[in-house]
Amino acid sequence: MVSRPGPILVINPNSNPAVTEGLSHALDPLRLSGAPEIETMTLAEGPFGIESQIDSDAVVLPLVSVVRARSDVSALVIACYSDPGLEACRAAASVPVFGMQESGILTALSRGDQVGVIALSTASIARHRRYLRRMGVSERIAGEYALDMSVDESARGAHVAEALATAGAALLSGGADVLVLGCAGMAAHRRALQERLGVPVVEPVQAAVAMALGSVLGD
Amino acid sequence: MVSRPGPILVINPNSNPAVTEGLSHALDPLRLSGAPEIETMTLAEGPFGIESQIDSDAVVLPLVSVVRARSDVSALVIACYSDPGLEACRAAASVPVFGMQESGILTALSRGDQVGVIALSTASIARHRRYLRRMGVSERIAGEYALDMSVDESARGAHVAEALATAGAALLSGGADVLVLGCAGMAAHRRALQERLGVPVVEPVQAAVAMALGSVLGD
Amino acid sequence: MVSRPGPILVINPNSNPAVTEGLSHALDPLRLSGAPEIETMTLAEGPFGIESQIDSDAVVLPLVSVVRARSDVSALVIACYSDPGLEACRAAASVPVFGMQESGILTALSRGDQVGVIALSTASIARHRRYLRRMGVSERIAGEYALDMSVDESARGAHVAEALATAGAALLSGGADVLVLGCAGMAAHRRALQERLGVPVVEPVQAAVAMALGSVLGD
Amino acid sequence: MVSRPGPILVINPNSNPAVTEGLSHALDPLRLSGAPEIETMTLAEGPFGIESQIDSDAVVLPLVSVVRARSDVSALVIACYSDPGLEACRAAASVPVFGMQESGILTALSRGDQVGVIALSTASIARHRRYLRRMGVSERIAGEYALDMSVDESARGAHVAEALATAGAALLSGGADVLVLGCAGMAAHRRALQERLGVPVVEPVQAAVAMALGSVLGD
Amino acid sequence: MVSRPGPILVINPNSNPAVTEGLSHALDPLRLSGAPEIETMTLAEGPFGIESQIDSDAVVLPLVSVVRARSDVSALVIACYSDPGLEACRAAASVPVFGMQESGILTALSRGDQVGVIALSTASIARHRRYLRRMGVSERIAGEYALDMSVDESARGAHVAEALATAGAALLSGGADVLVLGCAGMAAHRRALQERLGVPVVEPVQAAVAMALGSVLGD
Amino acid sequence: MVSRPGPILVINPNSNPAVTEGLSHALDPLRLSGAPEIETMTLAEGPFGIESQIDSDAVVLPLVSVVRARSDVSALVIACYSDPGLEACRAAASVPVFGMQESGILTALSRGDQVGVIALSTASIARHRRYLRRMGVSERIAGEYALDMSVDESARGAHVAEALATAGAALLSGGADVLVLGCAGMAAHRRALQERLGVPVVEPVQAAVAMALGSVLGD
Hints:
6 copies of one chain form a homohexamer. By secondary structure, chain A is α/β, with parallel strands linked by helices. Chain A has helices at residues 17-27, 53-58, 60-69, 86-92, 100-108, 122-135, 151-156, 160-173, 190-197, 204-217; strands spanning 8-12, 38-42, 75-78, 97-99, 115-119, 141-146, 178-182, 201-202. The first copy, chain A, has a 4-stranded parallel β-sheet with strand order 2-1-3-4, sandwiched between helices. A 4-stranded parallel β-sheet of chain A has the order 6-5-7-8, sandwiched between helices. In chain A, helix 4 (86-92) links the parallel strand 3 (75-78) and strand 4. In chain A, helix 3 packs parallel to helix 4 (86-92), helix 5 packs across helix 10 and helix 8 (160-173) packs across helix 9 (190-197). The termini of chain A are close together. The relative contact order of chain A is 0.18. Chain E binds chain F through residues 26, 29-30, 32-35, 96, 98-99, 102-103, 106-107, 109-111, 135-140, 190-191, 194, 200, 203, 206-207, 209-211, 213-215, 217-219, and chain F through 26, 29-30, 32-35, 96, 98-99, 102-103, 106-107, 109-111, 135-140, 190-191, 194, 200, 203, 206-207, 209-211, 213-215, 217-219.
């Protein structure tokens, strides 16, 4: 590999630039000289927040279009916890594609035995349960706890830190020993939550980008 | 994080410096300016190759001693596919500890659906099977295939490439769509094997160090 | 229930009218006086055959549009073995929605212990494996065997009967005691295959419509 | 199949005619012109209610005798939630045999993700747990909740509706999103309970007969 | 416990006295002074060999009658690999009841990781698979291999030793590292088979009686 | 086997003789004339109590040394609930080796459907969970409840009986129908606890020795 590998493209499939900005900020520590650039983008065609099954399915084709248009990248990350279009993007891409939920859970499995997930909404918990069963890792999941907020609220609301702490504490008392933030909007709260609760807290976009870096650099 | 984080210490628990050298070389692409140093060491007290359950158990206390002595590190990687002493080192350390088998398998789960593992020996396959069951990911394992070589042979033998290709092909025809190299000694063969077989081949020490980098940088 | 319930709408998400005709014919025995009408339709927006992950994801929004437009129906059946859009249609509908794969597998579980699936293509087997894991029924699956045909070929090809018999026999020798036809196009071959092999052969669109009838009539 | 298929025989293995009457009434909507007759019978040799393991085992041979005597039927349904003699009747019959628990659970799996079962008695819950494990679907079961009533009481008691609502609400708060009535005696309460709780409620004898209809008509 | 505990009653549920004699002989080493007597009996009402689901179900009530009549025993063992009536006998007894399959498998799980079972007939393998799933131990089963003999033949045939060796070797090459003899009739061949194949071979009636002894003596 | 088999050696891997004495006393009922002697020993190199992962790993090599030195035994039992060194001792021994946790759980699976374990400490519960997953029997585990005592305290404390009853009752109300004492120190309390709670209580050293007796006598 003589030339520098292309960027790792992190696509926020909702159209809320505040979420993209937040996650880009969370990725700053992974931007290293000598390593691939980490580029973030907002999916113009996405809804303002992906908060339902239909929202999630609606972004699959736009995501595939981005994947097809960007043959310059060395890896892709889909930065929505529903992992919309993950399999379709993998089929369309010639480079590795990482999903935020998948990477976040796999990374958590290296940091604890029983994973607790802080979900955005009660409705999303059923979607996640099916996804975790599909992943074949249900035995390692302690449970999920919903904030019942919108994506935008989770990214900007003043009371988010408190709500995350309540959710995290409930998951720990249910047996979790590692937590995953179940929405890209929560990224800014990771470190404070980890310090407050004393267990590892995984920010899944960071986890996905770290896995992407490993796959590109090691290749 | 004002000061630079300490190094990521990668411990080869066998006493064969050729294996340490090989894996250090495999980690070169993950050595980045701005990121933690990646330091490798050979465990003086280790056997020349960890090739049995007793070999694996024998290095646990020496590993714990290293962990206790090195409070300067920001993360630890145990670079033997048996993940000897992983839980003991986690209990002894105040930083994240990554096992090679655990990280290799978790990383493979982000690159394919059914994982095939190229094991050093038939005897190790039973150990791995118990370990994978303990991880709770057996549904995602296509199988293992043994080279029946010593660690040293796998790191230096002339015919290793051919043996790996035979093993890999057998695993693919058994349903695997991603491969894991089941010994640190095989690291140098990763890229060639991946190109030859056309599926992702995960080198688990690289995978563990990438996860360690993610945990340190994101923290 | 004073008024007659609305029709059960069976949507073929590909745009091949020969497939719709074939499955409508297969549903004739389930058209009963006193029971809901069974209406079939071809999805104009669908590809000629759903033969990839992207094909499958591409029909989700058009299916949701149909669901939203047809508030007169009493139940819906998605007649493609990939069950495209099943969760999205369920979210959009106020009546029960049945998927062909889900219903076919569940019905097969009442006819035998180990299910063998005759898949259209090798590529689809990986998709089905993930789906079956998501369903949580993997312990009851003997395996899948691919014909490696197009949807259209499976619906009309002269040599389909022979290929199905070969596939079925391979699945039986691998432990299956009940078979499922893994594409709506194969419907016409069910009875002959069952008689030839001597085990139950489930046609999944029939299975889905029978479940739909049960849910509507019993309601 | 030129001649009309034989009846679907629904056998109530207890000797309480009030239960048979209740379930026959619940099956009225599935009696369609052009479809097989749905015949119900009370097993004279059965106990007044099947309320223990021994009650359940005691009816196996009498059920097998009925099966052997009725070569005119096109399918059989065993209408007791313990599915007594299901495997023995399958071995004795040349037509499909459906069990009430098996069919009820499989049908529920098409209507929700996590199944809650309203059981007659605490003692029966352990039996059901073993049965569900045998079915290989435990990952999809939210739990069971016992009424602690006799079969007869569940079929006729004035306070049954209230007890069912309490049980159902407890199951929903434990994560269930679809309910199954765990005794043939409860059939008359299905619709009211479904309307009250707002989730699908499956009456398993209806479910078994719908599956039987599908197998006979589609054959 | 001032008085000597009652005998451990081992019931052969078939009516073939040669099988009872063979298993009584196999139990001689477990007859110890100071320990409970080990009494064997042949179930007069049993078929000559339990070779089908109906055979197995037919002995349940006769077994329950024996259990009820023998209040003097300290434990019971049902000596047929199908474990007929195990739950019914447990419900009827006030002392521990052990099944031959259950005890044989549990004991094998302490002697190896992957259990291979030598079954009497192909038909019985499906029954065993359901039973093992019900036990929740399927992950530890390598497979079953059928002799396709009658019970009587397995107890007396001249060529049984050779057939067992063939079956055992097939199971070992399929991954088993411990074997279970899947019929009480095969008891006399245990030691020779173990010596020939070099892996532990569990005779399940011995295993059940050893568990019974442990429960009685330790009580 | 004309000569009497060698003793069954039960090794207490901690160095607390009070624990060895207590378990030796619990084994008295299994000392039978005609059966192998049951010899207990205290591991001089062990810690005073095995109460952490490192304690458990630290005794592996000393245990292997004992195993290698004692070629006269007919079976070995490791009498610490963590089963330290079980696989290493099996690799070193030419006779069967039984672990206390493994044997206790397997024995409990023959006495009830859902096992509850009374653990010494909260920290040990995570270790046990991984071990039970490795065993592949998690579906049969109701849960664990910690006393949060030292090994020594559990063997001698005055209030142990009361604490065990509280723990046992909590496990029963969580669905357990059989209990396992999760530390060799608790042996003396087995019978009283069983009588108080009315469900079988398994003392795992007894269970392991009973399995050892079965394997030696039956051999």
